Write the structure tokens for this entry.
Amino acid sequence: MTGCNFSQPNGVLSIIDLGNIMHSPELLKGTLQTIILKLLKDQGKMYGYEITQRVKDLSDGHLLLTEGALYPTLHKLEAEGLLRTEVTMVGKRMRKYYSLTADGRTSAKERVGEFVDFIRTMSNVLQLNVG
């Protein structure tokens, strides 16, 4: 099924298959906040398009975040006090950078830990040996 392209009608995630590895949008839907928090924890500050490209690069092109998924999630995290924004001029354009607040750094650590625990639990339940 190489070359398949899935889109959720609500814009949650766009997923592609490159090399017979398929990722279900349902599996990824609950991880978007964790992905964003972890990226910002590692990178310091990023703007939206930069986040989409970093996810694409880190996933070898298997995960493509749409604007319809990314920006509502960024706004939700900001409303929860986990992100702060900074607008700067780049040339003649304004660019909005996102970075973690202190609560955001704590949440990133907690969510990644929860995700690792979840992967271990699912590996046990499904009797998988994940390297």
